[in-house]
């Protein structure tokens, strides 16, 4: 009986170790899609505490995508300034607490930018919209 318990503990530890190592190597992908009406151009500038992804201009329905490895303590955050016409807003486009599951379930955090705020698209066809930070 003790041998069986010992084998299960070893198996459990091995599975946990493999999951942890996979997380260290895995990349998260973020895609931002311009869904503004009337063919409006979307100007975006995204960055984290470590990386500045620069300025990008997106025509209607075009996208900007980036990839990164989340830090192991779960505090990774990317924020973007998004502007069109006379509007400008900030939004945390990736927060580990909210979006960490993109890595395992969606493979890409896909965001559709609308005038009322970004909407996160899920693989089952549903979406959840969020208000702008400002």
From TrEMBL:
Its main location: secreted. This is S-protein homolog. It comes from the Eukaryota. Pfam families: Self-incomp_S1 (PF05938). It comes from Rosa chinensis (China rose). Keywords: Secreted, Self-incompatibility, Signal. It is found in: Secreted. GO terms for biological process: rejection of self pollen. Belongs to the plant self-incompatibility (S1) protein family. Transmembrane segments: none annotated. The keyword Signal applies. Residues 1-26 form the signal peptide. GO terms for cellular component: extracellular region. The keyword Transmembrane helix does not apply.
């Amino acid at each position: 009986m003790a041998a069986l318990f010992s084998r299960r503990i070893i198996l459990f530890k091995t599975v946990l170790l493999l999951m942890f190592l996979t997380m260290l190597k895995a990349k998260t992908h973020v895609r931002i899609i311009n869904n503004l009406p009337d063919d409006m151009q979307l100007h975006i500038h995204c960055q984290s505490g470590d990386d500045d992804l620069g300025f990008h201009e997106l025509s209607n329905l075009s996208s900007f995508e980036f990839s990164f490895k989340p830090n192991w303590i779960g505090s990774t955050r990317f924020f973007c300034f998004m502007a069109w016409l006379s509007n400008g807003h900030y939004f945390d486009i990736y927060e580990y607490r909210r979006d960490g599951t993109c890595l395992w379930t969606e493979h890409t955090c896909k965001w559709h930018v609308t005038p009322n705020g970004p909407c996160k698209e899920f693989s089952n066809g549903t979406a959840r919209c969020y208000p702008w930070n400002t």
